[in-house]
Prior knowledge:
Keywords: Signal. By secondary structure, the protein is mostly helical. The chain contains four helices and two strands, in the order ααβααβ. One 2-acetamido-2-deoxy-beta-D-glucopyranose is lined by residues 44, 48, 53, 114, 117, 125.
Amino acid sequence: MRSSKSLMMMNKLSLFMLVATLIWIGGTNYDDHVMAAADSTMDGEAAAAESNIWCVANYSTSDQALNDIIQYVCGQSQMDCSPIKPGGSCYEPNILYRHASFVMNRYYQVNRQPHECDFSGHAVNITWDPSCGSCYYDRKYK
Ligand SMILES: *[C@@H]1O[C@H](CO)[C@@H](O)[C@H](O)[C@H]1NC(C)=O
Ligand SMILES: *[C@@H]1O[C@H](CO)[C@@H](O)[C@H](O)[C@H]1NC(C)=O
């Protein structure tokens, strides 16, 4: 009787530890995200060192500029733009901003120099993975 009671105490304690650990892990992840966001605004080079940088279009870029960027990037011989063509993994959502962002990131990942994420000032680097559904944004291309 006594031992089964202490067993229950143990189980309660384990459950408590588990919940406490999960809360702690959740909190840590949250802090990491906040830290990463701070890094990206305060120290681009530190964020680059973590090699978790993606290059996408600034949201306020005009359709004309987005089209020009796609033309430019996809005109480069080493660029495979098939993912944004009909049937490609990044065709949906069929939104110009998304298509441009995909090819800009692919272009940037070729050598990951800060000046490669510029596109006449229409690019922004971000520290969260913009991949969505079947569309995988390169972390490193070739
Ligand atoms: C996006 O472009 C707008 C308009 O040119 C500019 O004001 C804004 O600062 C840009 N955003 C970033 C994150 O560069
Ligand atoms: C990211 O953007 C910031 C601000 O424009 C810039 O200073 C930094 O060099 C960029 N980092 C990379 C790796 O492109």
